[in-house]
Structure formats: structure tokens, C-alpha cells
Predict the 3D structure of the following.
Amino acid sequence: MAELDTSGGGKHKGGKVRSKKVSTRVDLTAMVDLAFLLITFFMLTTTLSKKKAMDLAMPDNSVKTSQLPVAATRSMTVLLGSNNKVEWYVGEPGKSAPTVDNYGKDGLRKALIENGKKVAETHAAPNNFMIVLIKPSDKSTYENLVTTLDEMSITGVQSYAIVKITQPEIDELKKQKIY
Amino acid sequence: MPRVKVARKSTSIDMTAMCDVAFLLLTFFILTAKPKVEDPTKAEVPFSSKEILVPEDNLATITVGGGGKLFYSVTGSDIRTETLKGMGEKYKVDFTPEEQARFAVTEVFGVPMANLKSFLDMDAEQKKTYQQPGIPADTTGNNELSNWILISRKADRALHDKDLQIAIKGDRREQYPIINTVIDVLGKQKIFKFSLITDLRPAPKK
């Protein structure tokens, strides 16, 4: 079946060379077996999960833009502390009582939604969205930052920024024992 | 009663079509398969609810892992080769063509320029056990990370006429200051938009 015809050539001098008629059918069973084996292998080894990402835009700090005056009552400051704890307050520091919270559905997310609603009710449109300042301390982890940014997109906060933490705020975190 | 005779049929079937399909699928899976990359960083990325896919090519990734070490990777072996040449010129290190070829297939690395030559000369077994010290990124003095990013951006611009996308892949337990350093390095180069690589949050356990 699968042999090469090596005869022919010199022997048939003058006469017509007649090739043997061989059936062209080949037994494909083994080949199919092998093919399916390899398919199974490659199917099981391919990774289907592609990497996901979140986009982050930082403000351009080289250009001094004229800053719009924003009412302090519209801003909410989120301080990221150690031990997966977060502290937040509305408005200027020291004027309203800060709250220590945890990350998650009933912690930061609830606070963000409630404060967002409060700001929307007490201010006139179109400037009635809340501005969130995220201040990660040196003791917070990268996961804390990503979780916070994720909460921003979940709760639909339009404007937020990552801001450098200041010394009074670090002292405040120390007071709450989360630094 | 006469016996009902069952006609004997041949048991062999025509497998040509099946074989065709099998090989078609096989070709597809072979071509889409990607070799697994040896990841020296072992960074576990944090979870988020975002589902934006990371671009497959034209991407530079800065990985933070292993206790504040910085690793760098850039897609495309041609960009890698060009970047290494640029870095060699800048730091006065001569890389042989063999070392350049080795660097072109190194997906992720975290070695300072001083050790890079000896790192590239290692064989695969040594590389596995070697603890990569991370790329230095002092904001005041030796900022190699910044140069790696800058030169690979230039290489991408020269070779493909594209803007290199930047992604940060951080271990979830890393402290914030090192992440801040990376963001600062990018900010100095006027990169204000980048991606943070995250994983989809697993379903909450009940």
C-alpha cells in the first residue's frame, strides 16, 4: 500500500512502462487518533483567561492650570491606612468627624454612595457631583489602592484623584491606630 | 421460515473528512498556543471588577513584586533587541550578538545594568535559581528603570511608529511607596495614562 515502486527504468527498453494500479485509499485511523490526541493536548493547555486591566489617568503635574474653586463640602477625602483600614471625612480636615471603615460593600462603598447622594441633594446642578481625594499612606498596600479605585468605578464617582498624603493626615491615621 | 440474511457491510468508514477537521482544529490550537513564560516576579495581582483587556502587543509592563523589586518587560523581540542596544550605548556595556539574541527571548527581567551581561550568559537552569535583584529606580541618582522605559519607547517609535502602552503589574501585598515611585518615574516622562493589571474578582464564597 505505502511502498515506493522502485522497479522500472532500464528493463523496459522500448516497451511501454506500465505502472501498477494501486488503490489510493490509505488507512487513516492511526492518523486521526494522533490528531485528536494532539487536539486534546492543545485544548487543555491553552489559557483562556486573558489579563484584565484598569486604566488610570494621573493629572499632568508639569502644567500649572488655573484651578476652579470647589466648595469644600463637595469633597470627600479617603485616607488609606494600614491593616486594610480606611478613614474618610467630608469637607475640610478637622471640621467633620472622620470615620474609620473597612473596604467592601458595607464599608467604603456605602459611604461613597451615601455621601454622593448627600452632595447631589445639597448642591445645585450642574456642579453637584462629589470629588473624592484618595490619599494612600505609606503603610497601605497596592491592593488597597486598586480596591479603592475599583470602588470609584462601581459607585460611579465621576471625579477622583490620587493625592499625596500630608503630615497632619498621617498624624490623624496614627491617632486611629491605622498607620 | 427462511432465514433473514443480514447483508455484511464493510466496517471501515471513510475518515478523510474527519481527518481534515481534526487537523484543522489542531492547526488552530497550535497556532494560538503561547509558550508559558517563566515569571520570576511571582506577583499576585489584585482583584477588581474591570474587564478591559490588556493589549497583547505594543506594551511595556513594569512589575512590582518580591518585596519591592522592580521588573521590566516589553513585548516584541525586535523592540527588546533595539532597547538593549540603546541601553548598552548609554551605560557603555558591549553586548555580543549572542547576548542580544538571548535578551530578545527574555520576557521579564529585573537585573541592574551592571549584572545584566552576566545574567544573559547564564544558562536556563541557573536563571531559574538566580534571585533577580530588581531594576534600580532611585528618583535622584541611578534611575535605570526610567531609561529602560524611555529607550524602549524610542525603539517602538522608530520600528513601528506607535506609542508604547504602559502597564503596571503589582503584587497585591506591595506597599504603596514603591508603586508611587513607579508612578513618579512615569510622570517624569509625561506618561499620565497607564493600565493597572488586575484579575477578575472570584465569586464570593458562601
